[in-house]
């Protein structure tokens, strides 16, 4: 698959999302426009119910917009079916979740190699690539361990390694430090920063903690389904003002 | 890709061994029952086929009719209405190859200190041809024996065992109704008849000897029955017509009146028997198939539970890039593996059970290759059929909802 030549990883134009309920349609996202370029580190913020989770799901191709255009690294996602969306998720997006979401019965190596299975990578290559990734996140000595045998911070590192397996255009992290203590959180955020700075990986981070958001360069804030701020990351006192 | 999915399926089965085992047990019992029941059915069919073959081919049996004495009606074959002359006349027919007039009776046989009650048949040489029964030791009954009413006896294998054990019998003297008979020969082993009688439990003597010296009928020429062999299978219908016509003519039985004899087509009787066994065997198989279906429902039940339990896992896989067909394949394969593995164990148990049954009981069983192949085909089908709904349910989950599932 070709990548966008102009360096735009996420191009969103006039995006609307509404949910059909018994009481009628409920709008969640209203006319969102956003462009994220390769190598950016964006924090998406907003109170709960602001639509940031819905936006995150659409960004991750887990959900589709009601109206509007979403171009992911040169691929228009508007008219795609479930199999094509699955392929986009597999090749272009790496997910990191709040709850780690590793497969409990699989070893760390197998967990990291999982996206490679769905990409059709041969077995030997899968294993090599997974080892390399685990080494990159500092877990090369634990490849045969199972998720329950390691700490939460280590589990999140495995999840990051898994997210990087198919060299995605976009790393999507949904509250990645929500289940971690402060010290570990900083460690994980440090890893994201390093991946962004050294490997030029585009990172989009959803969080409601300013302490976490400050690791990013750009902040996009949602309130009631509308982008109310799009610019450099602000400090807490700045928002209050 | 398939290899990886297979390993995944295998692993998730291994993660819950007791549950997998119990699910499989339904298939094991189902397949085992199918194999065992089909083996028993096949065995029964084989036994009947053998028995029919041992009876002789293209046979009719002509029985004398019942008699009425002071209002008491005897059973078929009791009236002295058939004679040896009827048999001779029947042999003249173009459609008849051989006849065997017979006079049977149950008598006590004595040899030395041993004695045995058996069925004694007065027969002519035609009997050996009609029954396709060879004499393995000594000589059969000859025309001379019949003409002179000699006191010779041919022993069946069972009688031989009971009276002589391992001793040679030919040339020895046995007593029948206190009359000494010389053992002239020994019959080949026949086995069971299609109605379950031991055909080897018999003694053959010349027909004339039976009539005059042993059974002592007041009608010296009468016989209880005549076995008639048609020239070929295709001539059976014509032969039956000819026999009826000839015997009616000889008796001057008017049209429309019930004759004093009965003609039975033994092959038709045997066919009915074979048909009955076949139906029984099918019925057994059908009952066993029901347990297979129950096993399949067990698989479906557990697969549904498994899909619910692993909703989150399905969500993770989808987020990572699994397509619907990947999820479908994973769960379908799991169901198929469980059912086919259950089938392998079931076949082993069924075959073992069949062998054990024929070893420990008198039931003859026969495991056929097609029943094993059928079991595998059915097991795979059941895996696909009962695995499809749960697998589809898994594959059609929405990624976000599956991920959110706790």
What report would you give on this structure?
The complex is a heterodimer of chains A (241) and B (406). Chain A is of the alpha/beta class and 241 residues long. Chain A has one domain: 3-Layer(aba) Sandwich (Rossmann fold), CATH 3.40.50. Helices cover 35% and strands 28% of the residues of chain A. In chain A, the strands form two sheets. Chain A has a six-stranded mixed beta sheet, sandwiched between helices. In chain A, a hairpin with a 2-residue loop joins strand 9 and strand 10 (226-232). Chain A is globular. With 406 residues, chain B is an alpha+beta fold. Chain B folds into two domains: 2-51 and 272-404, no CATH class; 80-259, no CATH class. Chain B contains 13 helices and 14 strands. Chain B has helices at 2-14, 17-55, 84-91, 126-130, 143-148, 157-164, 207-214, 236-251, 266-309, 311-320, 324-360, 369-395, 399-404; strands at 59-64, 68-69, 72-73, 82-83, 96-111, 114-123, 135-138, 152-155, 173-176, 179-187, 202-206, 222-223, 225-230, 261-265. In chain B, a hairpin with a 2-residue loop joins strand 2 and strand 3 (72-73). At the A-B interface, helix 2 and helix 3 of A face helix 1, helix 10, helix 11 and helix 13 of B.
